[in-house]
Amino acid sequence: MTSALPAVAILGAGSMGGAVLHGLVRSGLAPAVTVTNRTAEKAAKLEGLAGVTSIALENEPDGNARAAASADIVLIGVKPGMVPDLLREIAGDLRPGTIVVSLAAGVTVATFESILGSGVAVLRSMPNTPALVGKGVTGLAGGTAATAEDIALVRRLFETVGAVVEVPEDQIDALSTISGSGPAYVFLLIEQLTQAARAKGFDKASARLMAEQTFIGATALLEASGEEPAELRRQVTSPKGTTERAVAVLQEAHLDDLFTRATDAALARARELAAGS
């Protein structure tokens, strides 16, 4: 049986922090998790989860510091621009040996270490939203003081919500353009396929069912078969058939270049965020 994780705090349990929280609760591996949100309304939604203490900062202004002091792993889930102030707020309350993990896009390990001190173990993470259903991909990069044991522990935390890819920090932003933003690309493709179905006369419910279940079924087949996507595509694409004709049109649109340009644009924005713009 996998051993329990130490006490965890999630400061800013919004979209991503909340996804990680629900994965931890579902796994049963985190018996003590303290989370913070700005409003009582948001905090109330997390009350009652097993092992979770939910703090509303509008009621407890020092809630972040209290949460940080209660934990051995502290996840920073606030918006990137709020990170430096939050780190200054909690720096004096961290226990010796606490691991601090960033969920914030574009904020470097150097920023964390400059505020918390170079002796604090810092890791950058980049989860994606399918973490909410245990199907996430999380990129993980260790800072200068993070040991192999620290990284292994945080890896185990994120494995409660899906797969983990360990990368050097200089690859985190690039990873974010693939797995971090990637669910949005998939949802956009589903939207467009649904619209194509509607244009061919199908009602909204039928169009959604066909498009969404096709993506769900295709990815399930990919996972179960162990085959390369290109091989599965070839199996569907009969010579001189209808699928071959459709795939040719998609290839003529230069999807490879389109995805390269899209992910390059995302990477450029990540670098802008890191520069504070």
What does this structure look like?
Catalyzes the reduction of 1-pyrroline-5-carboxylate (PCA) to L-proline. Residues 8-106 form the Pyrroline-5-carboxylate reductase catalytic N-terminal domain. This is Pyrroline-5-carboxylate reductase. One of its GO terms (molecular function) is pyrroline-5-carboxylate reductase activity. The model has no long low-confidence stretch (mean pLDDT 93). The longest helix is centred in the last third of the chain and has 22 residues, at 204-225. Helix 4 (83-90) runs parallel beside helix 5, helix 7 (172-180) crosses helix 12 (255-274) and helix 8 (182-199) crosses helix 9. Helix 6 links the parallel strand 7 (136-142) and strand 8. This protein has helices at 15-27, 40-44, 63-69, 83-90, 109-116, 148-158, 172-180, 182-199, 204-225, 229-236, 242-252, 255-274, and strands spanning 8-11, 33-37, 52-56, 73-76, 99-102, 121-126, 136-142, 162-166. It has an 8-stranded mixed β-sheet, with helices on both faces. The N and C termini lie far apart (46 Å). By secondary structure, the chain is an alpha/beta fold. The chain contains 12 helices and 8 strands. The chain has 2 domains: 8-172, NAD(P)-binding Rossmann-like Domain (Rossmann fold, 3-Layer(aba) Sandwich); 182-273, Orthogonal Bundle (ProC C-terminal domain-like fold), CATH 1.10.3730.10.
